[in-house]
């Protein structure tokens, strides 16, 4: 009797913990629900980035003029990249910053540390190109 009772208890526990999937004769299907939480893995790099800008570059231009000089009295920061800490870090795949100026920087021009930057000047209302800004850009950190 004791062995029979143990066998019945094991069989009952197997039924309780079994899967809820079952065949339904003549059934047309049903719904399938699945749930959970997806947590993205945070992959950090040792870099911090600062993007600059400048407003108020106003100047008068004579009608029909083909060029104009706009005096700039302070440096204009365009892009800065540095490490988050002053400590050295081990190199690894995927952490080398890649900067694409979309052909607007001529890396072969100028001297070491200064390159030519050319940017389109657009009409602020129509976005139509009305000219080209050309200047020397100071660089640091080297290029491959």
UniProtKB/TrEMBL annotation:
UniProt key word Iron: no
Keywords for this protein: Signal
Pfam families assigned to the protein according to its UniProt record, in alphabetical order: Fimbrial_K88
Keyword Signal: yes
Regions crossing the membrane: none
UniProt-listed GO biological process terms: cell adhesion
A Gene Ontology cellular-component term: pilus
Signal peptide feature range: 1-22
Family of the protein in this entry: Belongs to the fimbrial K88 protein family.
Top-level taxon in the UniProt lineage: Bacteria
Record's protein name: Fimbrial protein
Lineage: Bacteria, Pseudomonadati, Pseudomonadota, Gammaproteobacteria, Enterobacterales
